[in-house]
Design goal:
Blueprint: E1 14-15, E2 21-22, H1 31-48, H2 55-62, H3 66-72, H4 76-91, H5 100-117, H6 119-131, H7 135-149, H8 151-163, H9 171-187, H10 195-206
Antiparallel strand pairs: 1-2
Helix pairs in contact: 1-2, 1-4, 4-6, 4-7, 5-6, 5-8, 5-10, 6-7, 8-9
Length: about 210
């Protein structure tokens, strides 16, 4: 039987700094190559921010072929989102205080600290800005980033509904209100730790008296 070259394993070697070559096999991700690419992307963000973040430079630092990166991450926004998501998952653990308002207080303070203190957190607002002028970035932000990164917050609201603190049908409406508060503070550079304002927001969304 004649072998279909389109279904063959495609190997794309690229030179690494130590002279060896790292291979990526077809659409299946090599864990070693993926880790090298994400590490390079994280370091580049720390050094140059989002404006200096490019697939070309990530490929050079990771010793990976650009076709490999573009196959796994079609745009730099997609690659940034994966770096951001990994760092955020490691830094934030959803609280379980037993009340929605205090869950939101603890989570939001941790979120703002993440935005202040990590390379991807400090550059996140650049992705939001890019999404206003770039359709691929907007699609990545809306369809990839938001559904995944809102799981923790949605879980807090769902748990509150299960406890009877809020109505279940209110959850889809409370989520954008929570996002709006946080992104407003981020985009206007007002994310210094502010427990008083965060408490007011949290109690308002939870319907808890001040």
């Amino acid at each position: 039987m004649k072998r279909d070259p389109s279904r063959a394993q495609a190997i794309e070697p690229a030179s690494t700094r130590d002279g060896h070559r790292r291979a990526s096999i077809g659409a299946r991700r090599s864990p070693q190559a993926e880790e090298a690419i994400l590490d390079a992307a994280r370091a580049l963000l720390a050094e140059r921010g989002y404006s200096g973040f490019s697939i070309d430079e990530v490929a050079r630092r990771a010793g990976a072929g650009k076709p490999t990166i573009y196959r796994w991450w079609p745009t730099k926004a997609d690659l940034f989102i994966d770096v951001y998501s990994a760092e955020k998952s490691a830094a934030l653990v959803p609280p379980e205080t037993g009340a929605l308002w205090s869950d939101l207080l603890a989570y939001t303070r941790a979120l703002w600290a993440f935005w202040r203190d990590t390379p991807s957190g400090r550059t996140f607002r650049a992705l939001i800005a890019e999404a206003q002028a770039s359709t691929p970035a907007l699609v990545a932000l809306r369809d990839k980033f938001l559904p995944e990164r809102l799981k923790d917050v949605r879980h807090m609201f769902d748990e509150a509904a299960a406890r009877g603190e809020i109505r279940p049908e209110a959850v889809p409406h409370l989520l954008p209100l929570y996002i709006g508060f946080n992104w407003y503070r981020l985009l206007t550079d007002q994310i210094a730790d502010d427990p008083e304002d965060i408490t007011i927001m949290a109690r308002t969304l939870a319907g808890t008296p001040q």
